[in-house]
Amino acid sequence: GELFLVAIADQKEGKEQLLQEYFGAIMPSAMKNGFTPLGQLHIDHIIIANNFKPNNFIGLFKWPNMTSR
User: Fold this and answer.
1) What's the pLDDT tens digit per position in 49-66?
2) Are 5 and 66 in contact, with CB atoms under 8 Å apart?
3) Are 64 and 4 in contact, with CB atoms under 8 Å apart?
4) Tell me, what's the pLDDT at 12?
């Protein structure tokens, strides 16, 4: 019943403070509900496959179930 989440993002240079504020606001609640970060992949060389073109970051996460999400 676990959910696996792959988040693709584009981390903009100069926006680190906003990113920290965002995660500071959402992470305590998410972690209390069982959200688990599994890892991050930073992409230096973008490879395009079919219509898939990741930006510069892929995050891997999981939730214990749909209700917790």
Assistant:
1) 776 665 678 889 999 999
2) no
3) no
4) 75
Helices (H), the chain: 16-32
Q: How far apart are the C-alpha atoms of 9 and 30, rounded to whole Å? A: 19
Give me 4's structure tokens: 């696996």
Residue pair 61/37 in contact by the 8 Å Cβ criterion: yes
Q: Identity (one letter) of the amino acid at 35?
A: F
Tell me the two tokens of residue 48.
């395009």
Spatial separation of the C-alpha atoms in residues 11 and 56, rounded to whole Å: 7
DSSP 52: B
